């Protein structure tokens, strides 16, 4: 976590030196602008620590607020280190956890005002972050938390393994409808938690533009951790541009390597004639992931795609 710290008094300076992050003295410096400091920190850091009054921090961050998916963690600490107060992005941004860390350093108290933390209830957004996942539709977090706070049971469905016993108020359930869904694609109106553990296998016609790959993508991009294909496509411009846009490494295999992958795959005589192997996308996904095929071949616009899951296990820690 990249952290920026600013202080406003000599005592605050001394405390800030003990905290994690890059420290800036915010007083007695000619030309120092808290607005400029905050603007830069918001765009470059994961967490901001203000050692001083909460009002200073509130006024400083107000012009730069976006939403809970993008705002960094912001914590205010009094200059004596007695209280560490998260004021922005407590769960998704990690401000609550940062406040706890600060309190452990200063010997103070982390003042957590989020309702679920106040009652010791499961915090679904903190859970997603702790498990290395993303939330595709954060506007749904409120409904999940509200159900817990009202004493209801939140149902969770998942296509990845979640080990351990669910916490109070949470049930891992089978069926067709859930409050929370953990998987590569959205399901109904559920809060969609996206685990980044799927390898995308890709086949395509020569000269296919990158836009065609975007249109054919059958899952949320955040679910994909890499892409794979046959070595004949290693320099395919549209495929390379598509992977580069999403930050995915493209791994390629020979026809012989793909043909040796065990399993039942969607065979195509035409693909076998052109490439030397009966299926590219499914075999490439399985080989690159070392796991099981989860989404079989789908074809659209001259592109075939399949998804295989890497080894990935979640638990209930949050």
Q: How many domain regions?
A: 3
H/E element sequence: EHEHEHEEHEHHEHEEEEEEHEHEHHHEEE
Fraction of helical residues: 25-40%
Number of strands: 18
Q: Looking at this structure, what is the CATH superfamily of the largest domain?
A: CobE/GbiG C-terminal domain
Biggest sheet layout: 6 strands, mixed
Mind telling me which CATH architecture of the largest domain this is?
2-Layer Sandwich
Shape: elongated
Question: CATH topology of the largest domain, anyone?
Answer: Nucleotidyltransferase, domain 5
Secondary-structure map:
Blueprint: E1 3-7, H1 10-16, E2 22-25, H2 34-44, E3 47-51, H3 54-61, E4 73-77, E5 83-88, H4 95-106, E6 109-110, H5 115-119, H6 124-130, E7 134-135, H7 141-149, E8 154-158, E9 161-162, E10 170-172, E11 180-182, E12 191-194, E13 198-204, H8 210-216, E14 224-230, H9 237-246, E15 250-253, H10 255-259, H11 269-275, H12 281-289, E16 292-300, E17 303-309, E18 313-314
Parallel strand pairs: 1-2, 1-3, 3-4, 5-6, 8-10, 8-11, 9-18, 11-12, 13-14, 14-15
Antiparallel strand pairs: 4-5, 7-12, 13-17, 16-17
């Amino acid at each position: 976590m990249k952290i920026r710290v600013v202080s406003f008094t000599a005592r605050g300076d001394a405390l800030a030196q003990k905290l994690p992050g890059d420290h800036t003295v915010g007083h007695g410096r000619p030309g120092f602008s808290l607005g400029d400091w905050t603007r830069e920190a918001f765009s470059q850091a994961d967490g901001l620590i203000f050692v001083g009054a909460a009002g200073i921090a509130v006024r400083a961050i107000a012009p730069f607020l976006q939403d809970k998916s993008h705002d960094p963690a912001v914590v205010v600490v009094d200059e004596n280190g007695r209280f560490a107060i998260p004021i922005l992005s407590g769960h998704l941004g990690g401000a609550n956890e940062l406040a706890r860390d600060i309190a452990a350093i200063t010997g103070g108290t982390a003042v957590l005002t989020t309702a679920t933390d106040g009652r010791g209830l499961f915090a679904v957004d903190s859970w997603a972050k702790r498990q290395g996942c993303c939330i595709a539709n954060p506007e749904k977090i409120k409904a999940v938390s509200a159900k817990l706070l009202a004493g209801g049971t939140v149902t969770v469905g998942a296509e990845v393994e979640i080990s351990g016993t669910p916490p109070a108020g949470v049930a891992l359930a089978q069926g067709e409808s859930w409050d929370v869904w953990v998987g590569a694609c959205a399901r109904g109106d559920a809060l969609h938690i996206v685990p980044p553990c799927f390898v995308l296998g890709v086949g395509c016609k020569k000269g296919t533009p990158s836009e065609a790959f975007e249109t054919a993508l059958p899952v949320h991009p955040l679910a994909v951790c890499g892409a794979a294909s046959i070595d004949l496509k290693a320099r395919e411009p549209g495929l390379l541009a598509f992977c580069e846009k999403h930050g995915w490494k493209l791994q390629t295999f020979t026809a012989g390597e793909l043909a040796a992958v065990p399993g039942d795959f969607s065979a195509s005589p035409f693909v076998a004639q052109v490439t030397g192997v009966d299926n590219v996308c499914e075999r490439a996904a399985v080989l690159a992931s070392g796991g099981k095929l989860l989404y079989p071949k789908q074809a659209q616009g001259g592109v075939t795609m399949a998804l295989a899951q890497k080894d990935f296990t979640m638990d209930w820690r949050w």
